[in-house]
Each structure stands twice: as structure tokens, then as C-alpha cells.
Amino acid sequence: MDRSRFRPIVDRFAAQRIVVVGDLMLDEFVWGKVSRISPEAPVPVVSVTSQSHYPGGAANVARNVREFTAHIAVMGVAGTDSAGDHLLHLLQGSGIDITGVQRDASWTTTLKTRIIARNQQVVRVDRERKATLTEAQIDHLQAHLESITGEVDGAIVADYGKGLLTQPIADSICHWAHRHGKILTVDPHPHTLLDWRGATAVKPNRSETFIAAGVPFSDPVEPVVSDRALLEAGKRLLDRWDCGSLLVTLGEQGMLLLQPRTAPYHVPTRAQAVFDVSGAGDTAIAVFTLALSAGATPIEAAEIANYASGIVVGKLGTATVTAAELEAGLGQV
Questions:
Q1: 327 Cβ contact partners less than 8 Å away, ≥ 6 residues apart
Q2: Does residue 30 contact residue 116 with C-beta atoms inside 8 Å?
Q3: Catalytic residue list
């Protein structure tokens, strides 16, 4: 692989036009310090020092894309609650197009609150209520996606299992991408078990790969390309989804790229230090998609996405990777 191509590919990120479709959330971080154990129960007492909020779920994927290009839109549903207001304010303030976001008074915007003390997550509190789209909302989503066809080069679907995505909607998005020759990448959810037939690429993690393929889970194997159970699960998904490639994220083992009629390609992790893995998958799918859209081969895109993921896990909280950080990292290759 010619690593000298990395920089020109990343340089083309700014011209790519991407839309992200998926479950929108708000991430809240409560930062504090622990000085004692509660007399009421054997739990730490956290004295709050600050709070911060970031777009979460599919909104965080869009936020990751926004670090590299101004041509980014997001589609989904948000409630008319305060969390929805705050989320859309953050997205709009970041320069992300939110015209494709539908507001619904009966929809609860998912709010994930993480309490952090001494750089360690003490507990996470989720406030959510799963819902499904009405026929009118489905029609609106499909019509909006069709209306922006000429304004996008690729689409990312981020399924967090909160109710937005169903098989009919997945089929509609796949057909749209096929009809118009658009790059379509998917970050699937293990419990929705949706088919993504014809997608350009699907990016499950290791456990999601086994669940989706219906293969019994087994412990990781070294070297990764000798992990027969994982390879069998990946082959099943390639056949079922008829997708161009399957990028399996493996945590400390890096990534495994599987393509039809091609030898498996293992990308070792580039992480120097791991502080927080939350949002690492969002960074991976965002950068992988941008690279494909910018003309990278799947192997090149996987390598670049792996570098980006290695950077983001060294940050605390729902973080992103900047263009300058990625270029600096690639410059050391």
C-alpha cells in the first residue's frame, strides 16, 4: 500500500458532501471529584465541578464529519423537549445542516448523562423512551433524502436502536444509494438485526458481527486473520448483505477489513493511550466514509480511519479528531 496517498486523500475531505441518518442523542458529562463514600450506601459522593454537553449518537457522527468538511447534514427525529432544543442548538452552532431533523412532541430526545470523577466514569444515566416513526414521518424522511440527492456524495447510517430505523427504512435508504450511485456506509446495531443489502460498507464491532451473523461468540484469536469464527461470521454477513466491504472494529486488536473474493486485511491499532472508547466507532465510520468518498480504496480508508480512532480514544469524553491531528499523525507514517 502506498502510504504517500494518505495526505492527498485527507486533503480532499473538505470537498466531500455527507449526510448522516440515524438516532439523535444528547451526551451530558457531569465532572466532579470524590472525597468520601456515602454513609447511605457503599457508593462514592461526587462533588460536581462542571457540566458539558455534546451531540451524541448519529449527531456525534455528524460532528466528527464536520471536523473535516463544512458540507454535512443530519437527518433524524428529536423531541420538542429541552434536550432536543439543546441538541439542535449545538448542531446548528457547529455549522451542521439540521433541515432534515423532524421535531415531534411525543418523541423523547435520548439524554445520556455520564458522571466522571478523577477521569473515571462513575455511572451513566440514560433518559429515553423508544418510539417508532409514523407513516407521515417516514414519507417525510424519504422525500427529504430524495430532495438532497444532488447535494451529497455519500450517506452514513448510524443505528443506535432507538426506534428511528426499521427494515423498510433501511431498504429505502439502500435503494436510494443504489439508484443514485451514492456511497452508503452503515454503523449497525446488534439488536435491530436489520439487513443492509447493497451498502458500500458496513462497520460492526466484533460482538455485533457475531450477533448479526448468528454465530456463537468466541474469544479473540491472534493473529486476527487466523480467527476462524470471526472470519466465518464476517463471510456470512458479506453474503447476506451483498455489501462492498465489512469493516469490523476490534478494540485493542485494531480493525479487520473483509471484502468478497479478497484476502482478509488486518489493521493493527494505532492507539498510544486509551482514556475513553466512547464515540470511537463514530470517529471510525465518519473518517472511513470521508476517505471512500475522497477516492480511497477500502484498505486505504480503513488505515486512515484506524489512525483517527487511535487518536480519539486518547481523549476523555465524546471527542472528535481534527484535520490537523489526523494529518500530524499520518505525517509520522
A1: 7, 10
A2: yes
A3: 282
Domains assigned to the chain: 3-24+56-109+128-330 (3.40.1190.20)
- Going edge to edge, which strands form the sheet with 110-117? 44-57, 24-37, 110-117, 120-127
CA dist., res. 141 & res. 134, Å (int): 11
10 Å CB burial of residue 148 (0-12, 13-18, 19+) is middle
Residue 195, all three cell numbers = 439487513
- CB neighbours of residue 2 within 10 Å: 6
For 173-232, the pLDDT digits (tens) are: 999 999 999 999 999 998 888 999 999 999 999 999 999 999 999 999 999 999 999 999
Taking the CB of residue 170, how many other CB atoms lie within 10 A of it?
Answer: 21
pLDDT digits over 124-157, tens only? Answer: 999 999 888 999 999 999 999 999 999 999 999 9
Amino acid 252 reads E
pTM here is: 0.94
Residue spans of alpha helices (H) in 1-114 = 6-11, 58-66, 82-93
C-alpha of 272 from chain center: 21
Q: How far apart are alpha carbons 199 and 176 in whole angstroms?
A: 10
Gap between the Cα atoms of 178 and 328, Å rounded: 35
Q: ∠113-116-118 over CA atoms, to 5°?
A: 180
- Edge-to-edge strand list for the sheet holding 97-104: 97-104, 72-79, 18-22, 154-158, 183-187, 201-202, 245-249, 255-258, 265-267
Residue 331, pLDDT > 90, answer no
Residue pair 274/311 in contact by the 8 Å Cβ criterion: no
pLDDT at 2: 76
SS3 state of residue 214? coil
